[in-house]
Amino acid sequence: MSKTLLFSEFEEISAKVWKQKIQFDLKGADYGESLIWESPEGIKVKPFYNEDDLLNTISPIRKKNTSWTIGQEFYVTEEQKTNVKALDAIDRGATSVTFIIAAATIDPERLLNGILQKDITVHFQLLFLSIAYVENLVLIFSKYKANCTLQIDPIGKLAKTGNWYYNQKKDFEIIEQILVKTAKNDTVQILAIDATLYQNAGATIVQQLAYAMAHANEYLNAQEEGPAKKLQFTFKIGIGSNYFFEIAKLRALRILWSKLIDVYNLDADCFITAVPSRRNKTLYDYNVNMLRTTTECMSAILGGANTICNTPYDHTYHKDNEFGERIARNQLLILQHESFLNQVSNPADGSYYIESITQQLAQKALDLFKIIEAGDGFLAQLKAHHIQKKIKESAQKEQDAYDAQNEILVGSNSYQDTTEQMSGSIELYPFLKKQPKKTIIEPIIERRLSEAWEQERLKKEPQPYNPTNAKK
Hints:
This protein is of the alpha/beta class and 472 residues long. The protein has helices at residues 3-6, 15-25, 31-35, 79-91, 108-111, 131-144, 154-161, 168-182, 196-201, 205-222, 243-264, 288-303, 322-337, 352-374, 378-383, 386-403, 451-459, and strands at 37-38, 44-45, 69-76, 96-101, 121-126, 147-152, 189-194, 230-239, 267-276, 307-309. The strands form 2 sheets. The chain has an 8-stranded parallel beta barrel with strand order 3-4-5-6-7-8-9-10, surrounded by 7 helices. It has a two-stranded antiparallel sheet with strand order 1-2. Helix 10 packs across helix 14. The longest helix is centred in the last third of the chain and has 23 residues, at 352-374. The protein is globular.
C-alpha cells in the first residue's frame, strides 16, 4: 500500500508544529533543559525525530543479509580439552567458534579434530606471528574447504601491551608475507582490528569508531605495492549499555568503512564480530550482568553484527565453567529462535532516531579520523601518547559520573544488596593487573567502572578477600 493511501486521512505535521505542541504542554518549563540531553559524544538527543532529521545525510550502509552467527570464544592451552568443549558448544547451538592461540606449540590438527566437518565458521585469533603456522592452518582449511578466518593484529598488540611482537618493521614484513601466502585462498581473512580495547578502556563511541578506522588505515598504508584488490577485514567491537547508540555505532562503522575503502578503490568487506563490554560488568550482584549482556547482544544484532560472542555473567571472577558458558550461549539462542531477531532484514531501518544518531556518530568520527591522519596517522599518535591521553580523559569523565551516581550500575553504586559476600567465590583476579615491564609506549589500559568500589567492599567483609588466592 502506498504512503498516500495509508495515511490519506491524516494531516502531515511538521517538526515545528510538534515542537510548539510540546512547548505548550510543558507549561513554561524550558524545552532544552527539560527534554534534551547530551551524550558523552556531544550529541544532543531530542524528544522526537522525523524525516527532516535525515536531510543532507550520508547514505546508510546496510548489511546484505539477516543472518548472524552465535559465537563462542576459547582460550586454548590444551588442544584435546578445548576440542571437546568446542564440539559440545557446537552441539548445543554455537554456529561459530573462535580459538585464541597464544603460542605456536598448539597443534591445530588436534584442536580441530571433527570441527571443520561441521557447518560452522571457525576463527583463529593468533597472539603471535608465524608464517609457518599460518601456512599450516591454510592447508588444513583448504583440505576441508572450511569457512575460516585468521585474526592477526600487531598494532592491537602494541596498543594493549606497549610492545610489538618483534618490532614495527619486522611485524609488518611478516604480515605482508602472510598476505602473499594466503592470497590464493579467497575464504581466509587475515587482517583484524581489535577495537574492544578502546571500549573497555573508556573511549567514547566517536573515539572507538575513529580509532578503529585509523587503526585499519595503518594496515592499508603499510602494503608496499598497494592494498590487494580484494581484502576482508574483521572488526572486533565491544558493545556497551547505551542501547540505541550502540546500534547506531555498528551502522556508522559500515558507513565509515565504505568511505575508507573508496579512497583505495577496494572491494573489501567489513566483517563485524561483536562482544559485550567488560567495562560495565560487576563483581557484586553479578546476575545483573546477564541483563546487561542481553541488551548489548540485542544492540549488536540490530546494528548488523555478523558474529556475536556473548560473555558469561561470571567471567570477571570465575574460571571457565559450563553453566556460565551455557547461559551466555542460550541468551543468543533465545534472541534468535524465540525473538526471531534473525528473521527481519535490517530491523533498525526506518527509525529516524537511530538513523540520526548514526549519521552524527559517523560524521564526528570521520572528523576525528581526519585529525588523526593530519597528525601523521594512528601509530604516530599512539607513539606520542595522544591516543592514550584522550582515552584517559574520556574514561575519567565516565568514572566521575559513576562515582557521583550519575552513571548507574544496579547492584554496585545503586540498589545494593548489603548482605552479599564475594570474597569466598573469587577464582580469578577481577581487578586491574599491574605487571611492571619495559615497554616502548604507554599501553592503553582496560578498567571496569566498579573496581575501586568493589575493592573497598571486599575489605569490609567478615573474611577479607586475599588476592594471593586468586589466579592473576
